[in-house]
Every structure is written in structure tokens, then in C-alpha cells.
Design brief:
CATH class of the largest domain: Alpha Beta
Order of helices and strands: HEHEHEHEEEHHEHEEEHH
Strand order of the largest sheet: 2-1-3-10-4
CATH topology of the largest domain: D-Maltodextrin-Binding Protein, domain 2
Helix content: 25-40%
Number of domains: 2
CATH superfamily of the largest domain: Periplasmic binding protein-like II
Distance between the termini: 55 Å
Shape: globular
């Protein structure tokens, strides 16, 4: 009899459960796991599916009909484009600001700053593709403002997204420019600040404002609205700060 009751309750919960799909920029791939866990403690009956990729590729998928409910971009440009093309229900809102860091699997002399990249020992530099990844665009901006871009661009190894750039930085190149947020993952705890990584001077590039929109596919859904509001909440802001994002 008890088993029957449990089965009935489980069946009832499954009927009430709903699913939402969130398209998330690659730089948020570590933070989104904790954000999802925190959200589901408030809304346990909502299943959250996460699709991770470069902002450029995700926006292209949205334009071509991908059934995503919310888009969390790595900048404001792609969400604005989505909104202007009438694929979004809401105007873009900044949910966090990202920053850039140098990262190497080997000990480096970071006292040199970005000048380190000119060193002859640095033969390959991982960088996100500036055509599809906002962090790649900001990386180029920083290097140009530091008057280094022209002299080192032949060393670049391009990652499709900032997450693939992280992998290249540690396994395929001597150093890389990555999202600071990725360095706060427990998986990367063995890499130490000022030894393996160092933040790039934020005066060299504009703050990387990251935008969120509710897409047309998610309009009218109370679950989508609740997730959107959660990402803008104080609880979420504390999680973003934990992963190195700038929240102001």
C-alpha cells in the first residue's frame, strides 16, 4: 500500500514538473552549475536544461529556431541583436561583468604584465575567437591598447569559445587569455594566482557586460520568468561574485 502511495506521489510530481532550456555563454559554464542547484532548491519541480556554447553560435542557433527559453550571453551585443530581430521577449539586462586573466600550466613571471607575451619562450598563445566569442574580442582590445597585438598575433591559437580556450591554455599552448571566472573552479585549484595566472589590467579593455534575455520560446512561462528573476537576485549575485565576476 505504501509503495502504491509513493508511486502515486512520484507520478503526480512528474505531471507537475516542467522543463526550461537555458542557452549559456561558455564563460559561465562553471558558475551555472551552482546557480542551477541554488535555483532548484526554490523550484524543485522545474527541470533546467543547460546548453553551453560561444555567444555567437548560440545566437545563430536562436535565430535559426533553436527552442531555447533564456539566453545568457557573454556580452550585450548578441542579446541586443536577438531582441532587435524580435526573437526575444525582453530587452537585455546586465547580469554580471566578466574580466580577463592570463593563464599558464607552468610558472610564469607575471611581473612583466602583458609584455610577457613577447617573450621568446612564449611560442603559442591561446585566445578565444573574436568573431564568435566576446571574451576573444575583449582580449584583442586589451592587446591593442597595450600595443602588443601586431607583434604577437602570429602566435595565436584560436578557441571556438572561452571554455575551449581554457583547455588550449593548459594543454596546447604556453599561455592563454581566459575568463577570470573559469579560474575559480575547484578543478583548477592547483593553479595559483601570480604563479600560473594573473588578472589583466582592466583599464586595457571595456568592462565585459553580460546580458540576459527571455526568448520568444519562453514567453508566458512562469518557470522561465522565475529563473530569469533568480539570475538577477541577490542570491545569484553572491554566486557570480564567488566565481570572480564583477557585480555592481
Amino acid at each position: 500500500m505504501i509503495k502504491i502511495i509513493y508511486l502515486f506521489l512520484a507520478f503526480s510530481l512528474s505531471l507537475n514538473a516542467s522543463s526550461i532550456t537555458i542557452a549559456v555563454a561558455a564563460n559561465v559554464s562553471f558558475a551555472i552549475k551552482e546557480l542551477k542547484e541554488a535555483y532548484t532548491t526554490f523550484y524543485p519541480n522545474t527541470k533546467v536544461k543547460i546548453i553551453i556554447g560561444s555567444s555567437g553560435k548560440l545566437s545563430a542557433q536562436i535565430i535559426h529556431g533553436a527552442p531555447y527559453d533564456i539566453f545568457m550571453s557573454a556580452n550585450m551585443i548578441y542579446p541586443h541583436k536577438i531582441y532587435m530581430l524580435n526573437f526575444a521577449k525582453t530587452e537585455p539586462i546586465v547580469y554580471a561583468k566578466g574580466s580577463l586573466s592570463l593563464l599558464s600550466s607552468k610558472k610564469q613571471d607575471f611581473s612583466k604584465g602583458l609584455e610577457l607575451l613577447k617573450d621568446k619562450k612564449i611560442k603559442k598563445i591561446a585566445i578565444a575567437n573574436p568573431k564568435t566569442a566576446p571574451y576573444g574580442k575583449s582580449s584583442v582590445e586589451a592587446l591593442k591598447n597595450a600595443h602588443l597585438y601586431g607583434s604577437i598575433k602570429n602566435k595565436f591559437v584560436y578557441g571556438e569559445s572561452i571554455s575551449s580556450t581554457l583547455t588550449y591554455s593548459l594543454k596546447a599552448t604556453d599561455i592563454g587569455i581566459v575568463a577570470t571566472s573559469t579560474l575559480y573552479s575547484s578543478k583548477l585549484s592547483k593553479y595559483k594566482e601570480n604563479i600560473n595566472w594573473k588578472k589583466i589590467d582592466q583599464k586595457l579593455y571595456k568592462p565585459i557586460e553580460q546580458g540576459i534575455v527571455i526568448l520568444k520560446h519562453g514567453r508566458g512561462s512562469k518557470e522561465v520568468k522565475s529563473f530569469f528573476e533568480f539570475i538577477l537576485s541577490q542570491k545569484a549575485k553572491k554566486i557570480f561574485e564567488k566565481y570572480g565576476y564583477i557585480i555592481k
